[in-house]
From TrEMBL:
Keyword Cell division carried by entry: no
Keywords carried by this UniProt record: DNA-binding, Transcription, Transcription regulation
Zinc-finger recorded as keyword: no
UniProt domain HTH marR-type: residue ranges: 10-150
Gene3D superfamilies reported in the protein's UniProt record: Winged helix-like DNA-binding domain superfamily/Winged helix DNA-binding domain
Upper classification of the organism: Bacteria, Bacillati, Bacillota, Bacilli, Lactobacillales
Annotated source species: Furfurilactobacillus siliginis
One Pfam family from the record: MarR_2
Protein name: HTH marR-type domain-containing protein
GO molecular function: DNA binding; DNA-binding transcription factor activity
Length: 158
């Protein structure tokens, strides 16, 4: 095998990340498009639907903001789009009128379920990509991906 330099890895990483960015969740959009239609929901909005569908506790603005590490105004904007699309309903607490929780409508449930199915397909694709690698290779890949996440979180340019 030819020598694999850090420069070769860096070039391949740049090419792969650009490819991912250009394709922007192609599988996700293709799988859920029949029911999302013209609503054009963002990945965050789909994740909010998933959170509401799967959480056993009441889902509030604060929980959404904390879960996805986004601002409360961003949550409010996403929630309004989901409510306008009739995918969620708001429920004001009878005990404390300052607290609003969210529930899925029937259409919201349909889209959340499709998103869950699509996520499972994506995770299966990732597992298939990792399967040919031995345990030591997977440890190196995981170490690299963890470092990549940390660099992204630190605001490094990509």
């Amino acid at each position: 095998m030819a020598k694999v330099t850090t420069e070769i890895v860096a070039r391949q990483l740049k090419q792969t990340l650009q490819h991912v960015r250009r394709n922007d969740n192609t599988l996700l959009n293709a799988q859920t498009a029949p029911h999302i239609g013209a609503q054009q929901l963002s990945l965050t909005q789909l994740q909010i639907l998933h959170l509401i569908a799967t959480n056993t506790l009441p889902v509030t603005n604060s929980l959404i903001a904390t879960t996805f590490n986004i601002s409360k105004p961003a949550v409010t904007k996403a929630i309004h789009k989901l409510a306008d699309a009739k995918l969620i309903t708001s429920i004001v607490s009878e005990d404390d009128h300052r607290i609003t929780t969210f529930a899925l409508t029937e259409t919201g449930h349909t889209i959340a379920n499709e998103f869950n199915d699509t996520n499972a397909t994506i995770e299966q694709t990732y597992a298939e990509l990792a399967a040919p690698f031995g345990k030591s290779d997977r440890k190196v890949i995981l170490k690299f991906l963890t470092a990549l996440d940390a660099a992204i979180d630190a605001g490094k340019p990509f």
